[in-house]
Amino acid sequence: MEHDLTKVKAYGDTLNDGAMQVSFTLPVPAGDEAREAARQIALKMGLEGPSVTEMADLGAGFTFFVLYGRCSHAVDYSAIKIPKQQQHILNFKEINSLIKNELKRKVFVVAACTGSDAHTVGIDAIINMKGYKGEYGLERYPEIDAYNLGSQVPNAELLARAVELNADAVLVSQVVTQKNIHLENLTELVELAEAEGLRDRVMMICGGPRISHELAIELGFDAGFGPGTLPNHVASYIATELVKQVKDSKEN
Amino acid sequence: MDLDQNKVVLARETAGKIADRLHEWIGDYTTTTTERAAARLLGIDGVDQGDVPLANVMVDKLEEAGILNRGLVPWLARAMAERQENAQQIAENLASGKLSVTAVADCPEEKWRDIADKMAVEAAAKIKTVKKKREEMKKKAAPSGKPMLYVIVATGNVYEDAVQAKAAALQGADIVAVIRHTGQSLLDYVPYGPTTEGFGGTYATQENFRIVRRALDEAGEETGRYINLVNYASGLCMPEISAMGAIERLDMMLNDAMYGILFRDINMRRTFIDQHFSRMINAFAGVIINTGEDNYLTTADAYEKGYTVLASQFINEQLALRSGLKEEQMGLGHAFEIDPDMEDGLLMEIAQAQLCRELFPKSPLKYMPPTKHVTGDVFKTYLINGMYNLVSVMTGQEIQLLGMLTEAIHTPFISDRYLSIANSSYIFNNARHLGEEITFVENGKIQKRATYLLDQACEMLQEIEKISLEAAMEQGLFADIKRTREGGKGGNGVIEKHKEYYNPFFELFLNHAEPLEGRQS
């Protein structure tokens, strides 16, 4: 289907119909006025011909809406450039042989859930022996020495361990995102690393359900991994980058 | 399900032996939070100028003076006898520096023992009054359906929590939990007063308990129902939070014997000692505990390690019995966490849920929703939650923590909670008596799975009994997490009891609990 990629609109069943479903709650009691308020919000969002298909009384003066409309906005898809962390993802075997043959030493990785975050499900999936979805965790890699420090690790402690182990990479997982605490915490980690002169010596990587590579770069990390990440994605990135760094330094 | 009843008996007896082995040493120790809980039960409340709770001030000073190993109550009673002041006044004077620990003269037991016992009996009577009030309110209220609908609020701000809790109750929730600030489990004190900032949840404070209790009572009044309030007697302050809950009429407490060790890296000895007193308080206060086996399945695979949940339920049950909890007060936990991509995964979920039901017939089982395999696809999550609700009503679960369609995205919005209640209400009503119509195919997939799980659980329990529970945790038998005996946080709060140690509540709570009047729900 040929269409103009400089003006991409949402698609329902016809090109450029802009069809969209939204749902939200308003802090007003259910009724005709509430329905009209929801409709007006949709109009302000750029939804043409909004229709409230469901209005539910949540009690205590709140009302929930499901609403359909046609979004008038279009975006220029052709102009979008997203930084990609890696072109080609290696598998378990390839990563280990790359490290063994090109780097010729073991890779050290330190990982933790930092701050007040107690949710280790993400970091465990990446680091622990068992891994996730049939992909072995970094502990299983013969060429990687991985240390999982667990949950609620202070940023300073994570960095101290990184120094102690002369780590190549620091992995930090952030699951709790309420009121953007993960951003504060991640920023603090980068600042601490910079203050201690570590930032250039160690690769810094963050991950979590609300993390993207783009966000990670913005926060001063080398890479970020979001939902669906498997252990080899992370290991592949680390190994490839380390090998690249060695090659670059030889060329200079 | 045609279970081998000999295996069931074996599992229970083995778990009993495991619990007995722990109890060979638990009684030789106390902890800082156990003593602070005694202080709180005796009405010591408030903070000093540096915001340190008075319970902590007193315990710290007794520890400095080297007499905490005799218990907090004896010194407090001596001070009260000598100065003719009440417990709170003694605590305040100690905090302000007007009184020092050593200024109180030692005196023979007969002089202070009466005061100690009298104030403990009064404190226990207050808790009994609270318990009675709950029973009366429940009697007046419309009985809740089964499974009961359990939702969480987690705004970080107690006033916002109160609004959301009330809204959830008005929408039909039977049980509301205020999720705790993520870091609180590792605080070795309980914060004071109302709080409006917390991440991932709200601080558990006595004032916060009161605020949400009031909101839920209002909602109960409006709807003619009784709305249960839940918090977390877990972390480094298990018994203190139980004490606060007993006073403020919380109805349920997350209260697991091993959770803190595994998932918060809290010292093993500390946790085992703390859980004992904490559960005694819950038992006496008529609080239903919720255990945390569901968490195992977020780190270990639910299909492969399903039996560890059973083994842990048996251990939690036996430890709870030894703290005076009745089976009717044990909301043993499990979860719907098998990978939704698995063929016949639903059958495996039914097997586990039905097995739990048959193994713990009197317990108000707590069923936890899928979290591990759900993504940001809210539509799919909503559907998976529907399957979870169906299994629950089919297998007679009682405490249903409702799955949120935005799990893995954010702490629930008010509308997420509404949708989860709508989902479960529809299914519970639409399939109300499905369980009564079902017989399982003899030697079919479901029966075979149940038999396998029970066999494996038995084997695991026998292995634990051989090596001790502590060694089992060192080897990572639960949740694939390994913890050392001496490691973890809070180990320095464990104190070997002096031969003259005294805590009147142990005797009061363990031996004077009243039998439950029917089912507590």
From the alpha carbons, calculate the radius of gyration of chain A and give it in angstroms.
23 Å
Q: What topology, given as strand order, has the largest sheet of chain B?
A: 7-6-5-4-3-2-10-9-8
**Count of alpha/pi helices of chain A:** 7
Instruction: Assign the CATH class of the largest domain in chain A.
Output: Alpha Beta
Poorly predicted ranges of chain A (pLDDT <50, ≥5 residues)?
none
Low-pLDDT windows of residues of chain B: 515-521
Mean pLDDT of chain B: 94
Kindly state the number of beta strands of chain A. Answer: 8
Produce the secondary structure layout.
The complex is a heterodimer of chains A (252) and B (521).
Chain A lengths: L18 E8 L5 H13 L2 E13 L2 E10 L20 H12 L3 E7 L7 H7 L16 E5 L6 H10 L4 E5 L7 H15 L7 E5 L5 H7 L3 E3 L5 H21 L1
Parallel strand pairs in A: 4-5, 4-6, 6-7, 7-8
Antiparallel strand pairs in A: 1-3, 2-3
Helix pairs in contact in A: 2-7
Chain B lengths: L4 H22 L2 E3 H10 L12 H11 L7 H12 L3 H10 L12 H32 L7 E6 L4 H14 L3 E4 L27 H18 L4 E5 L5 H10 L4 E3 L4 H6 L3 H18 L2 E3 L5 H4 L6 H17 L7 E2 L1 E3 L9 H15 L6 E3 L9 H18 L3 E3 L12 H17 L14 H23 L1 H6 L19 E3 L7 H8 L10
Parallel strand pairs in B: 2-3, 2-10, 3-4, 4-5, 5-6, 6-7, 8-9, 9-10
Antiparallel strand pairs in B: 1-11
In short:
By secondary structure, chain A is α/β, with parallel strands linked by helices.
Keywords:
A: 252 residues, alpha/beta, Defensin A-like, Rossmann fold, 3-stranded antiparallel β-sheet, 7 helices, B: 521 residues, 9-stranded parallel β-sheet, two-stranded antiparallel ribbon, globular
Describe the structure.
The complex is a heterodimer of chains A (252) and B (521). In chain A, strand 4, helix 3 and strand 5 form a beta-alpha-beta unit. Chain A is 34% helix and 22% strand. Chain A folds into two domains: 59 residues, D-lysine 5,6-aminomutase beta subunit KamE, N-terminal domain (Defensin A-like, 2-Layer Sandwich), CATH 3.30.30; 160 residues, Rossmann fold (3-Layer(aba) Sandwich), CATH 3.40.50. Chain A has seven helices and eight strands, in the order E-H-E-E-H-E-H-E-H-E-H-E-H-E-H. In chain A, helix 2 packs parallel to helix 7. In chain B, the strands form two sheets. In chain B, strands 7-6-5-4-3-2-10-9-8 form a nine-stranded parallel beta sheet. Chain B has a two-stranded antiparallel sheet with strand order 1-11. The C terminus of chain B is likely disordered. Chains A and B meet through strand 1 and strand 2 of A and helix 7 and helix 16 of B.
